[in-house]
Fold:
Amino acid sequence: MSNRHPATQPRAALVVTRRMFRAAVAGSIGIVIGWVTVGSAADSLRGEASWRTPDASETIERMRSALESLGTAPDQVDRSSELLLGGLDEGDGDRLSAFVIAVAESVPAIARLHELAEESPTVAAAWFTSADPLAASFDQLPLVLVASARSWLARELVYGRLYDEALPIFADVDATDVVDPAAVLFYRGVCRHSLLYKKEALADLRRLLENEDDAPLRFVRTAQMMIADIKPLKDDSLDEVSRLMTDVTRRLDLGRADSDVQQREQTIIDKLSKLIEDMEEQQRQQQQQQQQQAAGGSGQGGGSGARPMEDSQIAGGSGQGDVDRKNIGQRSGWGNLPPAEREEALQQISRDLPTHYREAIEAYFRKLASGD
Structure:
């Protein structure tokens, strides 16, 4: 880990490359890139925007005001202002990094947060609940410092697909309190989209699209795709099961195999079982209808006009046809198909869906079978 002060880090630390951006959202929208029409902007709201991105002068003024309220020496405030101006002039759009690095020069708590995040974003996330006095004082800082630093750390966690750790960090942040509101709405939307919080994801992404002119084009286009992707999602559908499998795979890739992951695996199995049972019941109903139609057609085709017997009887007999019930043992497993037929049924419920759903199901069960 570098021992240099955050303010002396290379200027390249402010650059967010396209590769980092793609990695941040790959787990969330990878399945939708190939089939969503980007040009459709039906969900893009054209009314008055509830947020806007502050320009460079306003951003610097907000930082100076926050530092002065903490009693920071004037020369140190000037130093941080110069750093922030230089970062904003880079033109790469990474306002959050520029702001945090500039503020870390003057605020020990944010300097500590930045230092820990360079070591590991997860370590920095855990720091908030540690016994460090600086951590205890963090939320007492001016709102723009707290909201912007939290949003910056959460974004770093999103880059690592650590959505469960990222979301609590900025779940309650108001985008208008941050120097880069578009980043908050976008990356929080990515978290909620990946974790299947449909309502919350749509709220963030639609709010982002309220002000497309103030948001990076890559945010706008990706948000449109994520909205089109998650809007039709229904509970207990094969679509939902496929997404749950993707999420479990992500967790296993991150080396997690705790009770939470096991519970999610059981949820997937339960939902798949329900889908198969529903299909079996539908097939039984169809067979019954076909048999009834065949029986009705046979009776009408005979032309004799004879009515069927009121009770099933042996010809010439007078009994009701009652027989003793056969003992079939425990009935808890009644209706279950043998493994081969269940596999065939599972293929049938997914055969008309896009290829990536079948691949996700097959990859998921291969991973479980391998014990990785």
